[in-house]
DNA sequence: CGATTTTGACCTGCGC
DNA sequence: GCGCAGGTCAAAATCG
């Protein structure tokens, strides 16, 4: 039973969000970012803080992966996720077990022997434990540029899919727990599915922040929703709509259980009209004033990415390109960079979006959302904060990338 | 020389 | 209990 919510697309693209329970892979194609209860690393904060902390591009090779802010040529997407559990394997690699260290994610059994208390927590966490955010986009490039640096640590053939699945770890920071899986859709190999898991424990470049914000918001939403759904308290569709009134097909939330997943499907053609229609609902007005922007921004970002990555976005994104949100001041000339920034800014800066999301969910759920909220909220909050900063600043422009 | 990618093996979780 | 599949590790190879 996965509940699916679909939000349709706004102007440019459609997002598919789905939450699934159980193994993500099977049910979902890929989920992406997960949000964890814990609060620690929200990407937001970190990201926010500094604007740029870009990684020093140190990595050379990763460039490819690294969407690098500076260049933004590629696609940018940044997810964030909290990771949580650690697998057992003994990996203790790097550092501190707890914090940031990258942790393996398989959700092991929660209880590994922990105390009862922990169990309790575990339970809670477990629930949300593996929220993931997946982004589906058409791209010929092997990977979407999301503003972060990634290191490939494995590749495996997934069952049912002739295309191998690649596993990447964020290398922008030593202990960053964020991981992502990249795989092409078996049905349509032009579609690249990127699943993010975990939350960055370090500042992110604007470009990355955008993605992170988006994903985190989605994840937050997802988690909240998923729990509710699980409880039967809420209707996923409702949630989806609420969240992204404008898009009916853009986002799919599947809350199945252990690993709720939010899938942003950018592979579909944007439908402005639809968007317009959807947008409006007065009910959602407040919170979602921005949604439209978000989608747009996102779409653009992807679009850009596509261009750079060689992916062909569905058609007319360009045509639709909408000016960046008001939040973001754009420069007179919408260059790619600008566009990108705008997109980034829009997303990132859209506190309203995330906040709205959170608020909406909360209200909808009647507070149920709260539970996770810590995480979610935090994330959201963080995001928001970040966004705020960013957005206000509109400074995103300052972002080197431009 | 250092960092990253590749690839096979290993471990864990889940279903039968 | 067994087998399957997913995910991760780590050694070797490759690249800048």
3D architecture notes:
- Its main location: nucleus.
- Belongs to the WRKY group II-b family.
- InterPro entries: WRKY_dom, WRKY_dom_sf, WRKY_plant.
- The chain is an alpha+beta fold.
- The protein is 36% helix and 13% strand.
- The protein is built from twelve helices and nine strands.
- A hairpin with a 6-residue loop joins β8 (251-254) and β9.
- α4 packs parallel to α11 (351-365), α8 runs antiparallel to α10 (336-349) and α10 (336-349) packs antiparallel against α12 (370-393).
- The longest helix is centred in the middle third of the chain and has 26 residues, at 206-231.
- Residues 1-129, 226-249, 270-297 and 305-402 have low confidence and may be disordered.
- The protein binds a DNA duplex (16 and 16 nucleotides) through β4.
- Figure out the total of helices: 12
Helix content: 25-40%
Shape: globular
Secondary structure: number of strands = 9
Low-confidence runs: 1-129, 226-249, 270-297, 305-402
């Amino acid at each position: 039973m996965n509940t699916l919510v679909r939000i349709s697309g706004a102007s440019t693209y459609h997002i598919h969000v789905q939450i699934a329970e159980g193994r993500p892979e099977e049910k979902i194609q890929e989920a992406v970012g997960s949000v964890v209860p814990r609060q620690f690393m929200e990407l937001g904060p970190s990201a926010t803080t500094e604007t740029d902390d870009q990684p020093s591009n140190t990595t050379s090779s990763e460039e490819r992966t690294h969407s690098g802010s500076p260049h933004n040529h590629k696609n940018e997407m940044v997810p964030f996720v909290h990771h949580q559990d650690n697998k057992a394997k003994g990996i203790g690699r790097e550092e501190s077990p707890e914090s940031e260290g990258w942790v393996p994610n398989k959700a092991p059994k929660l209880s590994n022997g922990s105390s009862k208390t922990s169990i309790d927590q575990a339970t809670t966490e477990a629930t949300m434990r593996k929220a993931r955010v997946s982004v589906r986009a058409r791209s010929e490039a092997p990977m979407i540029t999301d503003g972060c640096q990634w290191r490939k640590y494995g590749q495996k053939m997934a069952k049912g899919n002739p295309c191998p699945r690649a596993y990447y770890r964020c290398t922008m920071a030593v202990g960053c727990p964020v991981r992502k899986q990249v795989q092409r859709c078996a049905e349509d190999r032009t579609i690249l599915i990127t699943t993010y898991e975990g939350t960055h424990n370090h500042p992110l470049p604007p470009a990355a922040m955008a993605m992170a914000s988006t994903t985190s918001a989605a994840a937050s939403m997802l988690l909240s929703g998923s729990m509710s759904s699980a409880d039967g308290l809420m209707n996923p569709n409702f949630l989806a709509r609420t969240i992204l009134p404008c898009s009916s097909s853009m986002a799919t939330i599947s809350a199945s259980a252990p690993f709720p997943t939010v899938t942003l499907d950018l592979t579909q053609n944007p439908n402005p009209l639809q968007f317009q229609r959807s947008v409006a609902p007065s009910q959602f007005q407040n919170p979602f004033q921005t949604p439209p922007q978000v989608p747009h921004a996102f779409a653009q970002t992807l679009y850009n990415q596509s261009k750079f990555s060689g992916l062909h976005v569905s058609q007319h994104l360009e045509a639709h390109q909408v000016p960046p949100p008001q939040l973001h001041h754009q420069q007179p000339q919408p260059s790619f960079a600008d566009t990108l920034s705008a997109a980034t800014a829009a997303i990132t800066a859209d506190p309203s979006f995330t906040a709205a999301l959170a608020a909406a969910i909360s209200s909808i759920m009647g507070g149920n959302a709260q539970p996770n909220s810590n995480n979610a909220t935090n994330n959201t909050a963080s995001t928001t904060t970040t966004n705020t900063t960013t957005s206000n600043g509109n400074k995103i422009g300052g972002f080197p990338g431009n």
